[in-house]
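Q: what does this look like with manganese (II) ion bound?
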Amino acid sequence: MNLALEQEEAVSADSFPKASAANIERMLRNLNHFNSTPEFGTTRVLFTEPEVAAREYIKREMKQLGLKIREDAAGNIFGTYEGTEPVLAPVWTGSHIDTVLNAGMFDGMSGVVAGLEAVRLFEEAGLRPRRSVVVVVYTSEEPTRFGLGCLGSRALAGKLGAAEAKELKDKDGNSLYDVLKSLGFPVEHFDEVPVRRGDVKAAVELHIDQTGELERADKTLGVVKTICAPSVYDFKVTGRQSHAGGTSMARRRDAFMASAEMALAAERLTKESLGKDDYATATIGRVNVIPGAVNVIPGEADFSLDVRDASFEHKKELTQKILAEFEEIAKKREVTLDSKMYNDDHPMPCQDDIQKKLVEAAEETGISYIKTISGAFHDSMLVGEFAPVGMLFVPSRDGISHSPQEWTDFADIAAGTDVLARALFALADE
Ligand code: HGY
Ligand code: MN
Ligand code: MN
C-alpha cells in the first residue's frame, strides 16, 4: 500500500490525534510574558524589545518542532514542515504576534499557536502530506506603531515595497525600513519579499472572532465567508484658538466643535447606509485637541477615521458621503480641514473550497460551527491577493477584544486546531 493511501487510511480512520489545550495554553502564556505593560493587559508593539523577544521564542518553538525557519526582509517568519513533495506549492497557516496597546493575549497569537500545534499533531500521528505546511508569523498586523496595519502581509502581496517602508514613520520619526535594517533584516532584498500568485496553494488562519457572535449562537467555530476591509484616515481641523470667556459663541471658529459635528455625521451616515445584510462600521479611535486647556477654545483638533465594509463599492460610497459632509461642516464653521489617507483596502472573500474543507473537518470532528463574516481585518485580507484564503474563528468571551478582558477558552482553541489541522492536511495532500 503506498504511503499516501496509508496516510489517507490513517487520517480517515479518525486516528488523527486531538490537539492539546494544555500545550496551547503553555505557548500562549509563554508568549504573554513578552509584554511592555504587564500591569495592564498585553502590549507588544512591532520591533520593541518584548516583540523581538517574542519572535525569538516562537522560533525556538518552531526549532523544537523541527521546522525549517526562514525570515524575509519585511520580518515575516516562516516555519516549514516539509511535505513528501516539497517542490509543490505549500499550504500556509499563521497570524500575528504584535498587539494594540493594553490588549489581550489571544488576538493573533491564537492563530500562530494553533498552527504550531497543528504541525505537532502531524508529527505525533506520523503524517506527512504531499505539500509542505508553513506556519507564518506576519510582521505587524496591528497599525499600532506605523499607523498602517498588515505590514508583513502587505509586503508579501507586493503592496509595500522598500520605498513605502522608508516613508512609513513611527511617532519618533523612525522609518519601518530603518528599523528593519537596524535589526539586521536583509532590507537589500526587500524586492524579493512579494509572493507570486500560484506559489502558495492556500492559506488558512485561525483567529478569535472579536464579536461574541459564536458565543451568542452557542457555536464553537466560525467559518469565515468574507473579511471586511478598512479605509483609514487622519484629519486635522484648524479653527481659531481664542479666549473661552472673551469670545462670544457667534464669533468662534472652534476646531473641536467642528470635529465633534463631523464625528456624529460619520456615525449617522454609517447607520443610514446599513441595508439588510450590509456590514459597515465607522470608528473615530484617536482624538487630539490643541492646546487642550480648559479656558481656551481649541484652535486645532486631530482625529482618525476607520471605515469598514464587506463590499468595496459600499465602503467607497459611504466614505465619499462622509468626506463630502466633513467639507460642508468645515465651510459652515469657517475652519479648514486637512486629511491623510493611510489605506483603502479591499474586502477579501474566503475561497469556497477552503470553506468546504473547514466545514467537512468540523462535521467530521462533531464540532459546532456557523458561517460568518469578519468585521475585523486580518493578514488573510492581504494574503488573499496572492493565494486562496480561509479563516476559522474561535469564540471571544462577551465579544471583547483589543482589551485586557479579551478571553478565549484554551479548549475552544484546541477544538479549532483539530479542525484546522484536518483542513490543512486535506489541502496539503491534494
Ligand atoms: O483592526 C482590526 O481589525 C485588526 O484587529 N487589526
Ligand atoms: Mn487586532
Ligand atoms: Mn488580529
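Residues 229-344 form a domain with the Alpha-Beta Plaits fold (CATH 3.30.70.360). Residues 96, 107-108, 141, 207, 378 surround manganese (II) ion (ligand 3) (CB under 6 Å).
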